[in-house]
Amino acid sequence: MQFIPFSPLIDIGFWSQLSKNKIEIYKLDDGERSLLVKTKINPYQEKTSQLYLDIYAFQDEITLNKSGPFEIYSRIQFQNYNTIETYQEFDHLNYVQLTFKKMIESFSKDEKPNLFQGRMSIFADLKKYLFYYKLVVPQFQIENIQNIIQKSLTDYLGDQMQLFQQQLSLIIQQQQKEISNTSFVILRKENLQYVQFDEYQKNKQDVIFLYFDSYNQSQLNGQFNNFIAYLITNNSIKDQLNNINIIVIKDALTINKNQFSLKNSIYLELNLSESKIVEQNGQYKAFNIEGYLQEKKIDLKSFMDEQSLAREAVDLNIKLMKWRLLPELDLEKVQTQKVLLIGAGTLGCQLARNLIGWGIRKITFVDYGKISYSNPVRQSLYDFEDSTKGGRPKAEVAAEKLKKIFPDIESEGYQLQIPMPGHFVTELQVQQTLESFYKLSELVSTHDAVFLLTDSRESRWLPTVLSNAYGKMCFSVALGFDSFLIIRHGISLKKYNPEIHGERLACYFCNDISSPGNSMKDRTLDQQCTVTRPGLSFLASAYSSELFVSLIHSPLLDGTPASDNTEQLQQTDLGILPHFLRGQLSDFEVRLFYGRAFKHCVACSQQILDALEKNPQQFLLEALNRPDVLQDISGITEELTQNKQEIHEIQDIDGDDECSVLQIIS
């Protein structure tokens, strides 16, 4: 039989709690204490048999799991030394021999044995965040173990498998409440019923030992040697040693389940009549003693400061997704995305929080506004103090607050007025307008994705044009009173390949045949403010962030095609990739739409792109002061003239300015 030793798997929370206990509780008291350790069988193949220590190792009682993996708890000795010299002076070899003698003495008695005994010696250099430790688990070496029969548990049980599954479910529910230090229970052979240890002492005939091994491969953990040592030194069962029946569980078990996959578990019949504990020079020979005595050093300087711990904690939830639920999740791709948020209001604040929840490390805000008294109750990055004394700049405060939430993020804010068609620029304003234009161009060019979150149609035009010019992923998110609209803009013409991408998708302006203009003229107070139901921004920002993270996992990124048939939509592990999302809160409904790019679009057409590149300043100033020129440049005027059509009216179907779907009434 082949055996494998324990490998310690020590969570960072263990070292953090140890540091806290040393400073606040232990102080100069370096006496012996105890730790709660646990073993469990992993559901996936491992090269090691792991012994787990986490933040709960310092508890006196077990934190019960009502569901989840079945774990076996044991208690071992623990000593945290004040100096490295006293730590190094402890004689671990002598400890192992003394432990072996105590174990053999206890095995000869008719009492439940303690098979799992161990000791962890630690010196913690808290100034340098260095931890030195030895974790010793005394395990005998046994010779002459004769394996009479070994077969899969499934073959052995046959039609008794269902009965055994039921018994196993009851056993693990009971065992997970105890600190057992044994790793085995006893069953009656005839009916597989669980036998209490006291009852077993009265009748030791016709039993099967049920042993929980912590390794799911062909070898057994070295702890099995201690189990064999107990059997061969217990005088009351010596006459049965020629035929010992053992069921070895080597598969992951889940609490409160009645069915288990037992493909790795085995049944053994052993002849232990000639088996002996190995001794050498008057001392018991220990399994893997060289490995257990090897000193280990953990350098947690980069983890133990608060900011580093925060970074690890933020990543944990995402890493857990990757382990089980989303194995194809590309954490590096998500975290390295540079995101530009145009608008730091209701949508911008909540979307930023969603993005840092996904682990994104670079977020930049652009907003010209200041925080007003009404903002903090709806815009989650601001508080009352930000709105006093005339209000602080939204973009700068949003970036500042993100850093307070997550210090590891790179976040900047720019109080920048976006040049908008229909907002006339005087000669005195030209220089400032051009500076804003070039700064916005720089920001778009240095980010991977742009979100348009402003509260007017015309403020989205220039960022849309620039995103197309620089080949950036672009999203528009807009709110009405009780509806929201999300659009992932079609791929930039600079990257578009019809053979690869199919039909190019529409941008936010592809439904328009008129230029955006000054929508703030002749508006009443309720029309000047963005009046929406309070919960709407949370829904829209949630859908937006999830669509973005899903899209960057698509091989074609923003060139991923769409369809008006939801069954034909492209998918990633996170779900489908629609083009338009239209949510209606009054109906609690989200509908999906699809639109083709308009060849004469006033924002993303080739004609607009050419005009921008030919003479950026002239193009911009003409578009701002004479918005109708965009219809001439894009070819809409000529198209309408050729078809003898006139635009009589542009009607908003549902009445929500920011969620409109426009149609032509001729």
From TrEMBL:
GO cellular component, one term: phagophore assembly site
Location (main, coarse): cytoplasm
GO process terms (BP): autophagosome assembly; autophagy of mitochondrion; cellular response to nitrogen starvation; piecemeal microautophagy of the nucleus; protein modification by small protein conjugation; protein transport
Record key words, sorted: Autophagy, Cytoplasm, Protein transport, Transport, Ubl conjugation pathway
Keyword Protein transport: yes
InterPro entries in alphabetical order: Atg7_N, ThiF/MoeB/HesA, ThiF_NAD_FAD-bd
Domain THIF-type NAD/FAD binding fold: 321-554
Annotated Ubiquitin-like modifier-activating enzyme Atg7 N-terminal domain residues: 1-304
UniProt subcellular location: Cytoplasm; Preautophagosomal structure
Lineage top rank: taxon: Eukaryota
Example GO molecular function: Atg8 activating enzyme activity
Subunit structure and binding partners: Homodimer.
Stated name of the protein: Ubiquitin-like modifier-activating enzyme ATG7
Species this chain originates from: Paramecium pentaurelia
